Amino acid sequence: MFVLARNRSWIKSKLDVFSLRRLVIRDRIVPRIDSLLDGLGVLASFDQFSLSLLLMILSWLFGGLELIFLARSFGVDLEIWMVGFILGMISIGIAIPSAPAGLGVFEAAAVGAFSLLGLSTSTGLAIAVVSHFISITFTGWIGMYGIFRDGESITGLYQHLRNMSVLSSKP
């Protein structure tokens, strides 16, 4: 990603030349790739890229620690590679479009990972439900704090979003 971000203009010029005679690519694919490359522009700075990478690693480490502690509290001793596998499967699973907060898909991905590892699926489900509850609760509290700190309310946000959808649906 860092290399893509640092070479955006070169990639865009090659893409423009490649798509000159290919209308479908020029009209549908190139704008999406341009948007992706523009978004990666934040990572063009080595410092920003390093910070982003560090924060992702910390996120995975904290997720792994949470899984280890939850599994041990349920009497399951996971090896480090199993933790990585389960977290990876959950991450792939929640990438699938689903209900808000990934309800159901998160749990199904965790149960699938536990099953593939030959571990108890009922324990895997219990661990997934508790882990998901902790995650939703923790991020929910942070979000609520931010909303109220900015002087907003849930009702006010709902009405604002509703007005936006009504305005966007008018011709």
Beta-strand content estimate: under 5%
Structural class: mainly alpha
User: How many helical stretches?
Assistant: 8
Count of strand segments: 0
- The topology string of helices and strands comes to HHHHHHHH
Helix content: over 70%
Unreliable spans: none
Biggest sheet character: none
Q: What's the average pLDDT?
A: 85
Identify the quaternary structure here. single chain
Distance linking N and C termini: 40 Å
Using only C-alpha atoms, the radius of gyration works out to 21 Å
Shape: extended
Explain this structure to me?
With 171 residues, this protein is mainly α. The protein is built from eight helices and no strands. It has helices spanning 2-6, 8-18, 23-40, 46-73, 80-94, 105-116, 121-149, 154-169. The radius of gyration is 21 Å and the shape is extended. The chain starts with a helix and ends with a helix. The mean pLDDT is 85.
Structure characteristics:
single chain; 171 residues; mainly alpha; 8 helices; 78% helix; extended
Question: Short summary of the structure?
Answer:
The chain is mainly alpha-helical and 171 residues long. It has helices at 2-6, 8-18, 23-40, 46-73, 80-94, 105-116, 121-149, 154-169.
